[in-house]
Amino acid sequence: MLAGGAARRLGGADKPAVRVGGRTLLDRVLGACADAGDTVVVGPRRPTARAVRWTREQQPGGGPLAALAAGLKHTAAATTLVLSADLPFLRPETVRALRTALVDGGPEVEAVLLCDPDGHDHPLIAVYRTEPLVRELALLAAEHGSLFGLPLRLLTAELALTRLPHPTASFDCDTWEDIAAARARIRDDGSVLDEWITAAKAELGIELDVDTTALLDLARDAAHGVARPAAPLTTFLVGYAAAQRGGGPEAVAEATRKAVALAERWAAEAADAAEADGAAVAKAEESP
């Protein structure tokens, strides 16, 4: 992952450390490739939500090819996922789709690049076969004397490519206007709840995928059948009970099931009580 650069259009701000949706841009991209076998970040060390290996190019500020070559020295994997650290809408499923496309393309395909709706290639959202990637970087360095300052198009022009279209994953944050647009989009579209849950799990150090629909249904039933404050308190108690039983999705599901059953019993009793009260009123009205 490339996390260097001067961020001149951000006034020199540390772009990978800028927060969108409560998480740094760097952590958002790291979350999208969380299942990578090894993660190397080329750039200054920063706090991250998960452990990574850090490195720098010999001359910082040498551009993407120099940074890419520095990162490749620390991996022996057959394929290399290359990402920039300013992609707020990159998702794990997009990363998996890139990797699947490379496998499906067969050995003759040397890289799969993401492309945006306008047809522009994004070499820093791509998966490469490592051997031809290293080969072409070495040839470029030999031809030009070094990789310092060379544009990415010199690399991709020599590789056998295929492309994966995606409508939003290539959105990057080069300006404060881009940052503002990303922050607004997260809050305006239908993914705001997922964004919040992901940010909260990262902040709390939780790596747990649970059935959020079931928890929301439980909260709704507790709020309607008991009282509004019962919703957050009940979901808290479910989490606490699951933790006491070792945690994990199964423990959460079992605690949720029990709480749902209790809420149903509570609601049934309330309905019975209301029916009994109604019958008593009717009987009183019929009495002479």
Automatic annotation (TrEMBL):
Keywords, in A-Z order: Cytoplasm, GTP-binding, Magnesium, Metal-binding, Molybdenum cofactor biosynthesis, Nucleotide-binding, Transferase
Pfam families per the UniProt record, alphabetical: DUF6457, NTP_transf_3
Residue span, MobA-like NTP transferase domain: 2-138
A molecular function GO annotation: transferase activity
Annotated DUF6457 domain residues: 190-270
InterPro entries reported in the protein's UniProt record: DUF6457 (IPR045598), MobA-like_NTP_Trfase (IPR025877), Molybde_CF_guanTrfase (IPR013482), Nucleotide-diphossugar_trans (IPR029044)
Protein name: NTP transferase domain-containing protein
